[in-house]
Amino acid sequence: MEESIEKVIYDETDKRLKEMGAPEYQFPEKADFKDVIWMAALAGVSSLLIVLCLMGVIQ
Amino acid sequence: MGKVSNAEFIRQETITGTVPMLSKDRTYGFWDLFLITSGFSIATWCYTQGAYVAQYLSFSQMLINIFCFNIVWILVECIPIFFAVRYGIDLWVWLRSVLGIKGVAILATIISMANFGWYAVDSQLFASSMINLFDGFGIKLDQAVWKPVLGVLCVVLGTMIALGGPNVIKWVNRFLVTALLVVGAVVVIICFTAVPISSMMAVQPDTSLYESGLGRFMLSAEGNVAFAFSWSTQALVLPRLAKSEKGGYWATSLAYGVVAPFFVAAGGVMALAMFVHAGYYESDPTVMLATLAGPGFALFSLLMVAFANIGTQGTGSYVNCMIIKSGLPKISYKLLVFLAMIYVSILTVWGWVMDNFGSFISMAAQIQGPIIGMTVVDYLFVKKRKISLKSLYNIDGHKAYDFSRGFNLVGLGCLVIAFVTNILFVYNPLTAEIKSPIFMVLTGSGYTAVCGGLLYWLASLTPLRKYMLKDRDEIEIV
Q1: Interface contact A58-B26, CB threshold 8 A
Q2: Residue from A3, A10, A49 to probe the interface with B (highest B Cβ count within 10 Å)
Q3: What is the pLDDT of residue B443?
Q4: Most buried among B117, B274, B323, B372, using CB within 10 Å?
Q5: Residue of A51, A53, A54, A57 for testing the chain B interface, max B β-carbons within 10 Å
Q6: Residue B235: what pLDDT?
Q7: Residue of B115, B96, B83 whose CA lies nearest to B239
């Protein structure tokens, strides 16, 4: 039973990886440059506020 | 195994197992994932954390400490979500290439066993709330008897949610989280109307924790960084169900980086309001609200606490069983959920984790820190977003991630060095002793992440690169 479960998982994984590797497979919509800008902006503002606290500017 | 049960088994392995999830099978949009992850992140310990920070910092420093450290680290540790969404597999499957297949099996189990400690705390808080609730109706329950009974009841109810799988979790959280977010906002409004904000801002921080303001700020930050890290190993399990990279990343980041800290900040505001009103800090939201807004709101808050804890229990059981399953794929999801129920019930009745909460979260964060650092560095700079999916699953004899009998000695070595050097030279979480000025910049948990990532990247520049990157000639699916 254990072996057959393993084989079912293996075969299904193999089948799905082949499907993913096919040229017509549609991957989920990608993140874009706007996301990177938002990430950098949020991290930048947060880091700046932390630094201001560390320097004693914000008490 | 018949044909029908085979199909059902595959369906289960896709949703609650390690089989890659194809684009067409994804069920979670931004809002679904955001609400589920938020539901998972809202728990009573948020208030406890906020009350702790409120004592040692000024009002503005408290808000910056809570939100900014969480936002920065969550944004960083969630970067590999792009990978998880793209290929429909979770962080722990990727980690087979960083720690080795057997290394992942061992660490996934250790970390999940530690994660389940949170759920023992969760169920104990549920039990306390329920006892208070009955007390409000004039029914006195014997704590010695009812605390373990109600705690185990919370675990069982959470298990039922977990057994329902992602769809049940989705619907439970859609309802609960929306209500809880509204309640959180109401809680903050009550605090600000019960006590003037100027009075809260005028509260002088307690200096007993550390003599300098910088030390107090960073010791509070250690708690918040550990809080952010505590989600890391669980954070990248659910995004594999997301329909887009953008939705997966922002839903997870905003839930852990903004919603959870919002509840921590609410706990801080409530503690300050209590200090102004009653002269002492209080971390139990039910006591705070009963004092500040009367018994009606105490009942309201008790119900809130109860629902939040059951929802967290259910989602947490699903996520952590998935983590263990990624290392031990032969064990069925249902069996794991039942085993988790027994384990968390034992921890709940025992009560050790609750009694040693501070040490527990810091130690857990410092095992997770190096894994966060290595994952991000591996994804962005070492493997550069390309991986051999066939080797991850040992398909067709692809064995690039076998390393040394299933263990990646480089990855495991970086983890051990970061963990040990932190305890010896930077910060000891068991004694809360600061041992180096590095702590004043990175915190102890932050150091483990930076050190783990840096060492892993440096190793990739040496001849060890060949050992770490045996997969480069078999990258097929990109």
Answers
A1: no
A2: A49
A3: 93
A4: B372
A5: A53
A6: 66
A7: B83
Tell me which residue of B198, B206, B196 sits closest to B292, measured CA to CA. Answer: B196
Please tell me which of the candidates B14, B246, B441 has its beta carbon nearest to residue A31. Answer: B246
Phi, psi (rounded to 5 degrees) for B196: -60, 140
Contact between chains at A54 and B214 (C-beta distance less than 8 A): yes
Q: What is the mean pLDDT of chain B?
A: 85
Is there a contact between B58 and A59 if contact means CB atoms under 8 Å apart? yes
* Interchain contact, B65 vs A58, CB within 8 Å: no
Q: Would you state the structure tokens that stand for residue B433, as one six-digit string? A: 């002793």
* For residues B229-239, average pLDDT: 77
d(CA B25, CA B40): 23
Q: Which tokens go with A12?
A: 């299904």
Helical packing angle, B260-278 and B59-77, nearest 10° = 160
Could you tell me the pLDDT band of residue B320, with boundaries at 50, 70 and 90?
A: confident
Identity of the amino acid at B82: F
Confidence of residue B3 (pLDDT cuts 50, 70, 90): very low
Distance (Å) from the C-alpha of residue B289 to the closest C-alpha of chain A? 29
pLDDT band at B234 (very low <50, low <70, confident <90, very high): low
Residue B407: DSSP 8-state: B
Nearest Cα of chain A lies from the Cα of B62 at a distance, in angstroms, of 10
Query: What six digits make up the tokens of A8?
Result: 């079912």
ipTM of the complex: 0.91
B126 pLDDT above the threshold of 70: yes
Orientation angle between helical segments B59-77 and B45-56, nearest 10 degrees: 130
Look up residue B73 and give its two tokens: 């680290």
Cα angle B400-B405-B409, degrees, rounded to a multiple of 5: 80
Check: CB of residue B224 under 8 Å from CB of residue A46.
no
Lowest mean pLDDT among B68-77, B103-112, B378-387: B103-112
Question: Which positions in chain A touch B14 (Cβ < 8 Å)?
Answer: 12
Chain B residues whose CB is inside 8 A of the A5 CB are 1, 9, 330
Residue that the structure tokens 């119900």 belong to:
B303
Inter-chain CB proximity A53 and B13 less than 8 Å: no
pTM, two decimals, is 0.84
Task: Please list, in sequence order, all residues whose beta carbon lies within 8 angstroms of the beta carbon of residue B367, skipping any fewer than 6 positions away.
Answer: B107, B110, B111, B114, B415, B419
Nearest CA to B81 among B221, B222, B255?
B255
